[in-house]
Amino acid sequence: MFETLILMLDATMRVSTPLIFAALAGLYSERAGIVDIGLEGKILGSAFAAAAAAAVFGSAWIGLCFGILASVSLAMIHGFACITHRGDHIVSGVAINTIVAGLTVTLSMHWFGMGGQTPALSGDARFLDITFPFADALQDVPVIGAIYSNLLSGHNILVYLAFAMVPVTYWVVYKTRFGLRLRAVGENPHAVDTAGISVSFIRYRALIICGILCGLAGAYLSTAHNAGFLKDMSAGKGYMALAALIFGKWRPVPVLLACLLFGFLDAVAVRMQGVEIPGIGQVPVQAIEVLPYVLTVLLLAGFIGKAIGPKAIGRPYVKERA
């Protein structure tokens, strides 16, 4: 039972990584007052760019750079529509998701001719797992060995980076001048403008950070968790990250816990495939696959209470003239 739990937690860490990156990306964006439905599109676009570049150059790090570049570019498009031209945030985000979903398949078929996929990645083109010192020697030690060798050790660098970004985000949002201005822009942009600070500049910077984190999420999916790009491989993770963001009430640590919960539900769903349940029999694969999404809706609908976002979220800011 203990070994099964360790395996479940290990899978939870791996599955939760892109959710953590994307949810923290949404936190920066929405704390600045920008609704970002386009998280899904940025994850998918960066996953394709990272896998394509890694396949061509044979380096996961070059792939990561291209993935971040693609994601930040999409974030700037979103900012140009929502900040500069004061467009509807939801429409802009949905447009990005739709365009990227079609463009990634079209480009992959044109460049690689593999039916919407990129070539399989191997060697230096992937982020490989990192083994901690003495992990093999301690593997047979009861309890501690399993936790150290199987749970903490054996993940790639992006997994550790995702968890490290949580305290970093907390420090940035709550302990720095930029974080204070970020939260102020999302709550009362007129007050920020009155203080002589550019609202648009703060929001664009927030979207750049959002793009970087989504780029990490997408690159993780295609060059670390998987060995290449597949059509629609983001599989709704951007929307689940938004749900985790609301579930965590726009605060870094609760958002992390929400992502781990959703990741755990996903790991349980995979673990339940082919398992016979007494009195019920074998659960259909389709029911297992939909389980994380159904439970996500139930949790959001019934257990978080009233989630109140930043007051100025989704509202275009018009500079007042004297």
Compact summary:
This protein has 322 residues and is an all-alpha fold. It is built from 12 helices and 2 strands. The protein has one domain.
What does it look like?
- The protein is mostly helical.
- It has one domain (17-251).
- The protein contains 12 helices and 2 strands; from the N terminus they run H-H-H-H-H-H-H-H-H-H-H-E-E-H.
- Helix 2 crosses helix 9 (199-225) and helix 10 (237-247) packs across helix 11 (252-271).
- The longest helix has 30 residues, at 2-31.
Features:
12 helices; 322 residues; mainly alpha
The percent range for helix content is 55-70%
User: What overall geometry do the principal axes of the alpha carbons give?
Assistant: globular
The main sheet comes to: 2 strands, antiparallel
Number of helices, counting only DSSP H or I runs of 4 residues or more: 12
Number of strands: 2
What is the arithmetic mean of pLDDT? 86
Whole-number tally of structural domains? 1
How do the strands line up in the largest sheet?
1-2
Beta-strand residue percentage: under 5%
The stretches of 5 or more residues where confidence is low (pLDDT under 50) are none
Our measurement of the CA-to-CA distance between the termini, rounded to an integer number of angstroms, reads 69 Å
Structural class: mainly alpha
| Spatial extent as radius of gyration | 20 Å
Helices and strands, in order, run as: HHHHHHHHHHHEEH
